[in-house]
Design a protein that fits this description.
By secondary structure, the chain is an alpha+beta fold. It has helices at about 70-85, 110-115, 125-140, 160-165, 170-175, 185-195, 250-255, 260-270, 275-280, 285-290, 295-320, 330-335, 335-345, 355-360, 380-390, and strands at about 5-10, 15-25, 25, 35-40, 45-50, 55-60, 85-95, 105, 145-150, 205-210, 215-220, 225, 325, 360-365, 370-375. Strands 1, 2, 3, 4, 5, 6, 7, 8 and 9 form a 9-stranded mixed beta sheet that branches. It has a 6-stranded mixed beta sheet with strand order 12-11-10-13-15-14, sandwiched between helices. Adenosine-5'-diphosphate binds near residues 211 and 286.
Length: about 400
């Protein structure tokens, strides 16, 4: 009987899964099947891909899959049916926040789950959904090993100066530091970059994970030395609906002078800002790119401007840059945004290759003597499956 690992990424509007087979002592990196339920808060649909086949989409009834708990049950039923005679060896979960305590994946026990619940205020849009996924999988498959893989863990290699805020030291000691996120994506890119880049220098690498959530990371020899996100996933680049970098004085003003409540402010910063808030049209870069509304154009200009500025900052943290990688929804698919960012970074030596850039894959720059730019598709599921598979091995 073939053993498999299931990965689960239970997010706010989608729940993604993949199954990876184990052959002897190796994990097949190509999933047997994968899929998601997306649009949970709006028009839910299920998407399943078997092997390399075309994905199959099925609209789901809002009344049936209208909330997270039911959507989770529905998805786990589907996985169960598909598992058939496979033997489930472990379930790997994406958990956004591991705090200062967890710098590596963990086997989930009731005690670990209780500790992870304490980080809910630090990632209110993600952590509760992630942990609901854990509990539902535990209940469904009590015999299988459940493993948490954290988005924060990859950044625990950073020096104190990169990790701290200039706040009273008691607050730092209490854990108010820059944790950083998207670590599973950075870990994947770091693992494949040497082979993809071959002889092209990549010791000092910047990875731009530009999706609905967006951040960047400076990697020295594959290890995180600085990143744009901080204590929560609000900081750094502007995102689909999140504000990114903001003067904390603005927050005081909104609270003290405008009479906003803390929950109104949270809703504004997490759900109503970013591309959506600036454009007043959409959080989706595809829609903004097609619009000639001045606010949509302004939102894109701001996104590019902040990304270019942060690349300068991360290049400074690395003492220069050898390679820049674009990944996630916008990074992998928008040649338009990549070109603008690379043009803004010409001073660092990047020269965009329009023809290569249009292909959305591989090296997209020309200058043999300067740093190189790349598009690499991220694969967080594979990183989660590998950690779940190898968790018992000594490090
Ligand atoms: P998440 O952070 O939810 O994992 P993704 O990495 O899947 O997000 O990115 C989703 C976002 O990518 C969409 O909201 C959209 O803005 C953007 N996107 C996807 N395809 C394109 C495209 N062809 N052009 C521009 N933006 C795109």
């Amino acid at each position: 009987m073939t053993a498999v690992i299931v990965t689960l990424n239970a997010g706010s509007s989608s729940i993604k899964f993949a199954t990876f087979s184990i052959y002897g002592d190796a994990l097949n990196p190509e999933p047997e099947f994968k899929g998601q339920i997306a649009g949970i808060d709006g028009d839910p649909f299920m998407e399943i891909t078997v092997g390399k086949d075309q994905s199959r989409k099925e609209q789901l009834c809002k009344e049936i899959v209208g909330d997270h708990g039911i959507a989770l049950d529905y998805l786990l039923n589907t996985i169960d049916e598909r598992l058939g005679t496979y033997q489930l060896s472990g379930v790997g979960h994406r958990v956004v926040h591991g705090g200062a305590k967890f710098s590596a994946p963990q086997i989930l026990t009731n005690e670990t789950i209780t500790q992870l619940e304490k980080f809910i205020p630090l990632a209110p849009g993600h952590q509760p959904h992630n942990l609901n996924g854990v509990k539902a999988a535990q209940k469904r498959w009590p015999e299988a090993r459940q493993v948490a893989c954290f988005d924060t863990a990859f950044h625990r290699t950073q020096e104190k100066a990169a990790e701290q805020f200039a706040l009273p030291y008691m607050m730092t000691e209490e854990g108010i530091i820059r944790y950083g996120f998207h670590g599973l994506s950075y870990e994947y890119i770091a693992s494949v970059a040497p082979e993809i880049m071959g002889d092209a220098p990549h010791q000092r690498m910047i990875v731009a994970h530009l999706g609905a959530g967006a951040s960047m990371c400076a990697l020295m020899d594959g290890k995180s030395v600085a990143t744009t996100m901080g204590f929560t996933a609000l900081d750094g680049l502007p995102m689909g609906t999140r504000c990114g970098d903001i003067d904390p004085g603005v927050l005081l003003y909104l609270l003290q002078e405008k009479g906003m409540s803390a929950s109104e402010l949270a809703d504004c910063l997490y759900e109503k800002s970013g591309l959506l808030g600036m454009s007043g049209i959409s959080s989706d870069m595809r829609i903004l790119q097609e619009s000639d509304d001045p606010r949509a154009i302004g939102a894109i200009d701001y996104f590019v401007h902040r990304t270019v500025r942060e690349i300068g900052s991360l290049a400074a943290a690395l003492g220069g840059v050898d390679a820049l990688v674009f990944t996630a929804g916008i990074g992998e698919n928008s040649s338009f945004i990549r070109k603008q960012i690379l043009t803004g970074c010409r001073w660092l030596g990047f020269e965009v290759d329009d023809h290569a850039n249009a292909t959305n894959v591989g090296c997209i720059t020309l200058n043999d003597n300067g740093p190189s730019g790349w598009v690499i598709r991220t694969n967080e599921e594979l990183v989660i499956a590998q950690h779940t598979f190898h968790i018992d091995e000594p490090v």
